[in-house]
Structure formats: C-alpha cells, structure tokens
C-alpha cells in the first residue's frame, strides 16, 4: 500500500489488492480484508514483474553448459525483479522433431522457481516440421527462432517457407540476424592471422553483417506475405535503420535490444585477453555511435523490447575452452539479474526515459508480443506478479554481490540507482529483501497464445 503504481499506460498513487494469486483491485484507499498481509510501499514504485523474452538459462553448446540451470537462473531473475522468462532452446539432434527441444526443456524446467515459456527453434525445414508447426503453435509455442549463421541456420528458401507457414499458423518468427557468408569469411581469415587477439572477435562480426542479415530477413518476410518478424538482440545503428525502413513501408517488424548493447562498446576487447573473454558474445558490443543510436530507438519507439540474451557460461569455462584462441571461447554474458535496474538507472534516471516506457520495454510489450496476456501489467484479473522497486536505493554491481551462478558480470563496478526490494509471483512473495522464498518447482510453464499484432 502507498506506492506509486506504474504500468505502461499510467502511473498513480494506488493500492493493489491481491486475491487467489490475481489482482483483485487497483484503487486508492483500500481497506485490507481481515487477516490480509499488508505491504508498505511508501516511497517505492509498484511495478509488474519483468518479462525477459530472451534467455538461455539451460543452454549446452558443445562441451559447455551455462552456469545457471532453471533454479539458479530463476533466482537471479527474481532478485532483479523479473518473474517470467521465455527461454530460447539450443539446437537438438540432427533431423529431430520440432517438439524434441521443447519437450526436453520442459522436463529440465521441473525445478523452475519463476514462470517460464519456451520459444521453438528451426534448425531444418522439411515436410515433417511443416506438419508439426500448427500443432506446436496451438500447444502454446507461438514463436520460433531462426538463425542466419551457425551450422543450424536455414537456407533462404527454407527460411522463407518457414516464415510463411509460421505466419499462417498464428506465430511470430524471431531471428538471429548475422550474415553467415560475411561472418564465416572474416572469421576464417582472422583465425589464421590473429586468433590470439581479442579484437579479432568483433572484427569477424562487423555491423554490416547484421544490417545485411536484417535486410534479407525483412525481404524474405515481405515475400512470405508480410509475415511478422522479430529481430533479437539488435546491436547496430545500421540494423535499426533497416527496421525503421521496413516499418515505414508498413511491414510488421519488431526489434529487441539488450543492456550490453546499450552500455558496452568494443573497447572492452582492447585490454587483457582473458579479461576480454568476459565480453565474447554474438553479436559483439559495437561503437559509441551504435550505443547512442539504440538509445534513440528506445526513445522514438523503433525498438520494442529490452531483453537480455542471458547466457552465463562462466569466465572459468571461457578461459579453459578458449585456450588462447578467441574463436574457441563460447559466447554469451549473464544479465537476467541486472536488466531492470540498469534500464531504470541508465534510461529513466540518466536519460529521461518515462517510467511508463521503462515498464513497457521490460514487461508489457514482451508479454503482449509473445502471448502472455496475464503477465506484464497491473490490472484487475492479471496475475499478481508484482515488484516493489526502491527508486532511491543505490547498488554497485559486482559478481560477488549478485545471486547468479556465473562468476562474473559484464557490468562489474557500475553503480546504479534503483533496486527490487520485494517480489511476488502470482501473489506469493518470493523475494523479501535479501531472502529468497521460492522453492524449486514453484515456477509454472506458460502456454502462450497465438501471435496477434
């Protein structure tokens, strides 16, 4: 009671009444029912639990598994104010069913402590996959990911066919947009000449590789009857311009970026080799001009979602597998715990972003785009995923102070303003100050609705 309730639509002093895990009322001056627990939110913001639409809590690549797993990753998310994640599974066995990874990840998620959904993944396209696709969408998996690089990428002809079929089935295509020919050609050269230099990593994945892939994906979506398209982890100003051009032409295209692309630049590859391994990710951090361009995209509405691409291979694992070769280092950085505070501190406090825009980017828009109508909002009938957020609390981000399982953070030493103080999942308190109250298995699978623009 007594907090400033902030949604994507409004902000107002109000009280929130929760009953049976749902929001029963949002009004001023509620008289608490007898026996109800009353939470004092004076001086704080009451916001919907964050929805992170892009995580890899349970990813295995080659010999390496990320640090988290569902319990540790969910605990980290909860302490950061995120109560729902949508996980991107990795590739399954060659030729596997469309349901293989979805079923495997659901089984692994038995210990989840926050709610979760699953994206599907296309790693090949054939008649069997096409036949399974409508079943998958109707079973609660209305979004699928396609890679435009890596071994599991789809050829353009198959990508177009998948775009068309997914759009017709009521789904949304998400795409990792880097041009494979450019990336593989440059990487091959640098593997021969300078694998010992950390700067070879961003040089092998230039900004124009992303922009070209986005333009290709947009063209294929247009040929597929204006199939809806969502660009994950947008990192460049050039790529953003391609998104803007498509929107001006009337195409249904959305874009996501991540805190690492809003705060880091490629100077992180200039120092010690082992230290630089912390920042190996795909795409890599870019130039200062790209950082500013992405902030402008958040301000003018060209970017719709801030997710994390949380992928927490430990620094120890990165060093062991790299063995002095930057191209052997597994890519990805942890971030699910720091997203809300970083976006508040860097966006709202420092750049004048509105509180409503902050909530839309981090909770409401991802819930809307990915078919979670009961999440990401504070309204009667919504699930009572609530965060009491202290806007004045200062915290210094360090690996030692975070609850994640990873042994580093790419934002080490950064002081931010704002912190989740108390977190509720479906009306149950799961974070209370420094205490974590959720148990493995408390998180539930969220079958998501078909896509609707």
| Residue windows where pLDDT falls under 50 for at least 5 positions | none
Distance between the ends: 35 Å
**Count of spatially separate domains:** 1
Q: Report mean pLDDT, rounded to a whole number.
A: 97
Give, in spatial order, the strands making up the sheet with the most strands. 2-1-5-17-18-19-20
Helix content: 25-40%
3D shape: globular
Please count the helical segments: 14
**Any idea what the radius of gyration is?**
21 Å
What CATH architecture label applies?
A: Alpha-Beta Barrel
Q: Which structural category fits the helices and strands? A: alpha/beta
In short:
33% of the residues lie in helices and 20% in strands.
């Amino acid at each position: 009671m007594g907090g400033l309730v902030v949604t994507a639509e409004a902000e107002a002093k109000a009280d929130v009444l929760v009953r049976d895990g749902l929001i029963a009322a949002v009004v001023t001056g509620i008289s608490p029912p007898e026996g109800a627990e009353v939470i004092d939110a004076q001086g704080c913001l009451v916001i919907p639990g964050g929805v992170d639409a892009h995580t890899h809590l349970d990813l295995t690549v080659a010999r390496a598994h990320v640090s988290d797993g569902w319990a540790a990753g969910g605990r980290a998310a909860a302490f950061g104010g995120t109560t729902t994640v949508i996980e991107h599974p990795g590739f399954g066995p060659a030729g596997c069913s469309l349901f293989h990874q979805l079923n495997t990840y659901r089984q692994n998620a038995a210990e989840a402590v926050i709610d979760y959904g699953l994206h599907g993944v296309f790693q090949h396209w054939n008649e069997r996959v096409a036949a399974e696709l409508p079943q998958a969408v109707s079973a609660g998996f209305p979004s699928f990911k396609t890679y435009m690089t890596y071994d599991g990428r789809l050829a353009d002809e198959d990508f177009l066919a998948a775009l068309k079929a997914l759009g017709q089935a009521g789904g949304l295509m998400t795409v990792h947009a880097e041009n494979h020919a450019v990336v593989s050609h440059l990487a091959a050269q640098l593997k021969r000449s300078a694998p010992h230099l950390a700067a070879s990593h961003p040089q092998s994945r230039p900004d124009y590789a992303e922009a070209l892939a986005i333009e290709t994906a947009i063209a294929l979506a247009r040929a597929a009857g204006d199939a809806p398209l969502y660009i994950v982890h947008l990192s460049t100003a050039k790529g953003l311009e391609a998104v803007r051009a498509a929107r001006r032409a009337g195409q249904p295209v959305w874009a996501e970026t991540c805190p690492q692309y809003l705060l880091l630049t490629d100077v992180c590859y200039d120092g010690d080799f082992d230290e630089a391994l912390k920042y190996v990710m795909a795409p890599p951090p870019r130039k200062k001009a790209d950082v500013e361009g992405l902030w402008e995209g958040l301000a003018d509405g060209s970017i719709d979602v801030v997710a994390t691409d949380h992928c927490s291979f430990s620094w120890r694992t990165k060093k062991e597998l790299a063995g002095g070769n930057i191209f052997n280092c597994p890519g990805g950085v942890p971030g699910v715990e720091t997203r809300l505070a970083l976006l508040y501190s860097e966006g709202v406090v420092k750049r004048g972003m509105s509180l409503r825009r902050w909530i839309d980017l981090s909770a409401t828009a991802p819930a809307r785009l990915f078919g979670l109508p009961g999440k990401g909002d504070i309204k009667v009938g919504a699930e009572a995923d609530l965060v009491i957020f202290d806007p004045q609390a200062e915290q210094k981000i360090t690996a030692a102070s975070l609850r994640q399982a990873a042994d580093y953070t790419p934002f080490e030493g950064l002081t931010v303003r704002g912190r989740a103080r108390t977190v509720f999942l479906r009306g149950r308190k799961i974070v209370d100050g420094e205490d974590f109250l959720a148990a493995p298995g408390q998180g539930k699978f969220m079958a998501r609705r078909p896509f609707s623009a």
